[in-house]
């Protein structure tokens, strides 16, 4: 190869390379331009996308801000409305309170006006009353002057006489009331028999002696009456004062009457008279001495009678005080029936009946003997004699069944043993026998009917019932025609008429009942 070819080839290669380089550069330039253009396009797109994204974000933020604003605005408006409602409510309450205060103020003004009017009326009434009092006082003075002229007495003298009369009437009524209360405490009611056991009555026979309030002291001659009376009656007055009885010395031949409700006192008076007449020395000092000795002898006799009674009945272990009270029964009567004989009979009846029923006959006999022990208790007591006897039996350590039988024989307490009804029945059997007690059935019924008829005669009385064996009168009155004040007056008027027109033992309780009833029907 020659150099020309070499250079030609080299030049062609160089030209090819240059052309290639040029073309490459042109291609690279175009490529770079295209890439730059693409980059600008992408940048523009990115910027545009960024702007769109920013716009979207902006819009979102604006929407969120707007929503938050709207929410805050709603909450604010709600809070504002709530506070506004509270303010309105408070304002309404304030208005209501103002109205109430105004109404109260108006009421206060009206009340003040009414009070002023009432004060004026009261002042007028007081003034009128004062005038009436002055007029009444003037009329009273005129009447007093007229009465003084008619009666020739001053007002002070008339007042003293009226006070004296009222005092005398009050003393009389008080004495009558005290006497009736004492008699009621001493007298007790008896009940009819609930059950009569014929076999027991037939197997127990007892005398029925009726006691009375009078004893007769027989004397040999009427000359002794003068000694008993004494100079100007001093002996008989001393004897009555020492014994507490009434000595009646009359025209009855060879007899002196001793009257008194207490058999012990009558017996002391009788024995004292017997000793005085035998001794012959009758004067006040001797009378007091003899009466004191006789009283001591009677006390000894009472103990002896009690001991003899419990021995005869076969009762053992009684307290000495109970034995003494049993002896005192000999000188006590109940509705005319001797209390000791009655108690002995009840004891025998109780023993027989208890034996027939298979019960403890000894306890029944003991309870029957002691059932009326409360009647001879020397001290005054407000309790019924059955309850008082039960308390005495408990005090002296008697058996509980005996105590219950004593307290329940008039139904004051509940019966808890089988002996109690036996004692009650036997007490009724002993008291209801013909001749055992003084008061007969016919006279008893007649007295109760008279009592009811007497009360029915009063105006306003519609019904009346005599109960508690005639010791209480229950009067029912018409509530429309009889007021409460008139009912009180009616009870007093009935009691006064009974006292004047009737004879009865003890006292009668008058109970006036005024009852108002209103009746309606629901249909």
Automatic annotation (TrEMBL):
Regions crossing the membrane: 6-24
One function term, GO molecular function aspect: RNA endonuclease activity
EC code: 3.1.-.-
Compositional bias (Basic and acidic residues): 107-117
Disordered: annotated span: 97-134
InterPro entries: HD/PDEase_dom, HD_domain, HDIG_dom, KH_dom, KH_dom_type_1, KH_dom_type_1_sf, Ribonuclease_Y, RNase_Y_N
Keyword field contains Cell membrane: yes
Compositionally skewed regions (Low complexity) per UniProt: 118-128
CDD domains reported for this sequence: KH-I_RNaseY (cd22431)
Function noted in UniProt: Endoribonuclease that initiates mRNA decay.
Protein name per the record: Ribonuclease Y
Source organism (scientific name): Larkinella punicea
Gene name per UniProt: rny
């Amino acid at each position: 190869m020659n150099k020309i070819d070499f250079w030609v080839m080299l030049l062609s290669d160089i030209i090819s390379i240059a052309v290639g380089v040029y073309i490459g550069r042109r291609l690279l330039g175009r490529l770079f331009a295209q890439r730059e253009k693409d980059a600008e396009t992408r940048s523009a797109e990115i910027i545009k996308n960024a702007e769109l994204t920013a716009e979207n974000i902006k819009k979102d933020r604006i929407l969120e801000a707007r929503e938050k604003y709207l929410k805050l605005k709603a909450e604010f408006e709600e809070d504002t409305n709530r506070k506004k409602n509270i303010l309105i409510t408070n304002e309404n309450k304030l208005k209501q309170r103002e109205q109430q205060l105004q109404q109260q103020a108006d009421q206060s003004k009206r009340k003040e006006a009414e009070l002023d009017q009432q004060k004026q009326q009261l002042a007028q009434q007081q003034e009128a009353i004062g005038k009436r009092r002055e007029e009444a006082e003037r009329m009273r003075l005129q009447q007093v002057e007229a009465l003084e002229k008619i009666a020739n007495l001053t007002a002070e003298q008339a007042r003293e006489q009226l006070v004296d009369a009222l005092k005398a009437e009050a003393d009389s009524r008080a004495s009558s009331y005290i006497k009736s209360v004492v008699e009621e405490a001493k007298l007790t009611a008896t009940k009819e028999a609930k059950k009569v056991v014929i076999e027991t009555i037939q197997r127990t026979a007892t005398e029925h002696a009726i006691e009375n309030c009078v004893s007769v002291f027989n004397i040999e001659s009427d000359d002794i009456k003068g000694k008993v009376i004494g100079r100007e009656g001093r002996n008989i007055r001393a004897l009555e004062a020492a014994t507490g009885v009434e000595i009646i010395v009359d025209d009855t031949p060879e007899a002196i009457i001793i009257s008194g409700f207490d058999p012990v006192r009558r017996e002391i008076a009788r024995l004292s008279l017997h000793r005085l007449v035998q001794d012959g020395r009758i004067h006040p000092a001797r009378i007091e001495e003899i009466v004191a000795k006789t009283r001591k002898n009677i006390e000894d006799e009472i103990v002896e009678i009690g001991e003899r009674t419990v021995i005869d009945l076969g009762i053992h272990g009684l307290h000495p005080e109970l034995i003494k009270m049993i002896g005192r029964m000999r000188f006590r009567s109940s509705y005319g029936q001797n209390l000791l004989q009655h108690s002995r009979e009840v004891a025998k009846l109780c023993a027989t009946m208890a034996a027939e029923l298979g019960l403890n006959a000894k306890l029944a006999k003991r309870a029957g003997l002691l059932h009326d022990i409360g009647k001879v208790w020397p001290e005054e007591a407000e309790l019924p004699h059955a309850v008082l006897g039960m308390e005495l039996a408990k005090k002296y350590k008697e058996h509980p069944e005996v105590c219950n039988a004593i307290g329940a024989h008039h139904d004051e307490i509940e019966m808890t043993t089988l002996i109690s009804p036996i004692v009650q029945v036997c007490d009724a059997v002993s008291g209801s026998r013909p001749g055992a007690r003084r008061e007969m059935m016919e006279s008893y019924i007649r007295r109760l009917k008279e009592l009811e008829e007497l009360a029915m005669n009063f105006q306003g009385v519609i019904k009346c019932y005599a109960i508690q064996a005639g010791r209480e009168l229950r009067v029912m009155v018409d509530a429309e025609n009889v007021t409460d004040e008139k009912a009180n007056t009616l009870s007093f008027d009935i009691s006064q008429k009974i006292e004047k027109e009737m004879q009865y033992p003890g006292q009668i309780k008058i109970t006036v009942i005024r009852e108002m009833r209103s009746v309606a029907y629901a249909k």
